[in-house]
Structures
1.
Amino acid sequence: MGKWAKYKQNYSKEWESDDELKSWITPCRVDQSRATCKYCRCDIRAHYKDLLDHAKTQKHIRTSSVEVSLTKGQRKIDSVFKASTSKGEDVKATKIAELKLATHIAIHSPLSLSDHLVPVCKSAFPDSGIASRMKMGATKCTALVTHVLGPTLSEKLIEDIGNSKFSILVDESTDSSKMKHLCVVVRYFSEKQESIITQYLGLIRIEDASANGLYTAMKEFFKVKHIQEDKCIGLACDGASVMVGKHNSLYSRLLNDIPHLKLVQCMCHSLHLACSKSVEVLPRQLDYIIKETHNWFSCSPKRRETYEQLYQTINDESPLQIPGLADTRWLSRFSAVKRILDQWNELKLHFQLAASKEKCYTADSLAKMYNDEINLLFMKFLLPLLEKFQTMNLKFQAQNPDPSKLFKELSNFQCDIMSRVVNPNRMSQKTNWEDHIMHTDACFCGAEFQMACSASQLPEATKADIKERCRQFLVEAVREIKKRVPVSGNHLELLSLLAPTDISELSFTKIVPELKRMTE
């Protein structure tokens, strides 16, 4: 290096980005007018020319080549030493992951899925320590759901209910092991979520299915769950007498302890029972046709294929399946009757061919019934009425029905059925409707039925008998609807006062008393 200049120059940060200097230069710790070489570990005057001259020296070249060869391929220290966690934190993280996975399985799939899902998680995430530590099969998953998640979520639910008023929805059922259970669902207003919540509360094992047995089990359930039963304002259930009977039922016994308890019967179940009871007035062979037609095809793929070929030959399309009657499926009768009527001629021909080939008693009976025009007339009479029951039922099954409109629709439904068999001028609630039932010829049994009956070649006496049975169906339907789905005094009548279209037409003096009735 040359002589030291008379002026003094300090270290410049810009040199650290210079291509010829940045790999080895660093500022001197004790003197700002010098730079330090990281390879040679010596100080150089902080002049750019002196720095370039140092980079060309043999010592620097030799030392830098050795340092580069030693550091080549080395990893950073943070990649070698990972953040250490305690064993307790690892165990806790694994337990949380297992609980989350058990919750997902319990909601969306059978618990046996855990035998396969956990190994899949381990293979899908091999670099995850949590996944590698998870050990949860069906037995452990069942234990977590039963003994950990269930009690914890139940405690949080009861805590959220607190002192709020609530309603309970109960339904009795029998499982595959013939054990009876009472399912309890709670509905309340959650102050935390600021919305009305409907949540599963518990499953009560029932040994005595009588009114007293259900009452005792319910009281014990409230006690175990630490629920304030005096805060219960509503009981919703089906129309079974053991549930809603006036003198000896679950509701009547709870009413003695909770005087303000309101009863809300399941409208869908009541409509189903009213319809099923009314159909019993009609000839038995109608149910036989529906059940045996379904059974004929459900047990034999060969019969389905034979009928499908016949149907496609006539209509150039595949037939829809004939559904069966189900006591647990509301108004399944409508779908069955509609399908049979749509395929009546094809089914008639199919069973005629089957009766001649298979020599089967069922096929022979069905062939005769499909060939009988009386059964066809009854089916045509039944279809539009079943459709009205089905439509009304679906309105109550809707996800978000408008309670203020349901009363009007239910009232119109009842009036529609009554007007077919009762003198319209005598349909007032103040009169006894059974005293004003019209004559058979004056009853309206449906336009399609009337047209088919007029075009039929059956004797007039037979037609009169058919119309009389239809009239009996209408009378029984009105009787069952009034008994099981009463319109007057229904809680829906009070809710209809809150309809936006009607509330402005009512005086303040009328609204207030009605609202008090609703909240009492």
Note: The two ends are 105 Å apart (CA to CA).
2.
Amino acid sequence: MKLSNAAGLTVALAAVGTPAAASAAQRHYIARGVADVSLNVSPWAKRNAVEGACTGVGPSRRDIIKRKLYASYRCTVKSSNGGESRGVVLVNTTGPESVRVAKVESGQLSGDVPIGAIPAGRPRLRSIDLTTLVGQSAWARGKQLFGVLCYGVGSYRDTENAMLFADFVCKVRVLSEEPSILLVQATGRTSVRVVRTLA
């Protein structure tokens, strides 16, 4: 088990798994703050115009600082623009920093919104690195960015000091525009490219 930082937040993250690309059958146990970030940055959250707060359900494990980690969370969601309660969803982890909506338990909400194909790449960066690097990308030229929050997806490498990913989902706020949900790939240790807009 290693500790890393959730993207853009001062939140420690612990993942339980092998230091290699995750197999489809592998379960990942993550901290509550990481589940919240993954849900709220997702294309699903933008499509439904919601944000949520999650509580772990089912079997748990503990990280090295004795916090509980879960592979499933129940999340209460509210309107992102007004705070009105919208319902409850169950999410399952799909990686060390990512979740997907497995079930809508209440409310008029859509099912999961897949991010689609993830390009192959070399795990190079932490999610928190994207906070600066997205603003330096070709996609950001001419835009006034005032907020970037990301989580890692796809292949990863668990190092001594951090969890490194090749690809990321990022919520990017641009002045005078609606937030964009982007799929971003690391192209070097200090560079990224926007693969496509997800929402």
Note: Residues 127-197 form one domain.
3.
Amino acid sequence: MLEDAVKLAVSVPKSYSRYLKILQACVNSRAIKHGRMVHCQIIANGFNSNVHLGTKLIIFYSRTGDAELARRLFDQMPERNIVSWTAMISGYTENGFYENALVMFANMCRAGYKANQFTYGSALRACTSLRCLSRGEQIQGCIVKGRFVENLFVKCALLDLHSKCGKMEDASYLFETMSARDVVSWNAMINGFAAQGLSKDSFLMFSSMMRDGGIPDRITLGSILRMAARSGDLVTVNQIHKLVIELGFEFNNSLTGSLLDAYAKCGSMDIAYYLYRRMPEKDIISYTALITGFSHQHDTDIDSLELFKELKWMQMGIDDVLLCSMLSICADTASLSLGRQIHALAVKHLSNYDISMSNSLIDMYSKSGEIEDARRVFDEMTERNVITWTSLIAGYGKNGYGTDAMKLLETMEEEGLKPNDVTFLSLLFACSHAGLTNEGWKLFSNMVSKYDITPGEKHLSCLVDLLARKGWLEEAYNVVDSSKPGTSILGAILGGCTKYGDMSIGQLVATRLLDPEYHDKSV
């Protein structure tokens, strides 16, 4: 139909009103080719100096992403009006040229033009995007002096500015003075509180909106779902899910993706998977949310291979977050074959994958018993962090290479990296399983004295297990004598006493185990 209209514009007697209508159709449908054809006809028929057509062409090129050509047309206009200036300011803002938009706004003011509500709205959006509150407040000063101070569109733009710049008190004052509110103003407040980490205030604002008779849109519901997901609030997620269905958004792909992500983060993977299967258009974002959720649930019976096949079939952009989550599943299920395929995908799709990806590969290969492959990934890395070293140390420990784990610690320290509590836990585990009692005892002492790390119950448990296995029962008991260890730690010492026939330490441990305060602790 649009093509027929363009052909008609070429063949019938020319009028600028007809060109305006066709250009608007090109704007609405983002029809670049047809819009350029109409532009050629406008020039050929001498209408290029018409201010209305010139403005419509600026809007057309701005909406189709060519802000540079829009500006060139603006500069060539023999006359301009406030709509022309607003079109150019709005075009810059829509295309991300926020500084240019504000310079254009300043030029407009110097040229003596008075802004309308749309001019103010576009200029304020530019300030908001730049998080430039001071310039926004200057524009607000102009608004207060003019006739748009109570305009809903302008007030919403001001609300958005103050809330996104972290000035929630000012935003709240503006909100309270509004004689009428729409969903945009409610969203500005809800998102503003959420951005400042004030989830409670954000939820309260949403409740006020519902009590006030406001009807949430996709943006409102998406914001509340993200907050509920962050706090693991499954009850709220269920309530919003019900509201999504009541408002007819059940088959909205974006909201379904937000629901899927929220359920996944709350641990309800059955519902998340159900939603994913019902999505009319599956995308990489929802797929990543699903896989990430499954990667945090180690007891899932999901067929990871089937999901992986689906990923390759979808042929969408593959990123490191998704592949790291897939590798986490492979590591927890020791799915070496799938892990190798994902490694191949990473090499193919991510030319320079980051530290997180390499760390995930080390973890996957280590847990699958392929410590040489893990070491190969480690050696190929140009940059490493504490997690990298700790992952390989843990891999050596789990595969019985305690001496190699200790050597890796020495190299790590030589390169100036400081081990953390997880590193030491992995090392103690490695020493315990390799029978390196002296090394483990020295390691524990260095952890406390050299690195000032307070040992947790897991560190104590590992050390006690290490000492008890070797028969160093007095040392093992002294480690926990002044603390209140769990029965599992005391049980390890008692097991050593039984093995080595140490009745004296055994009696001390038995006495503590019979103490009522340990009765509610599990062995």
Note: Residues 1-79 form one domain.
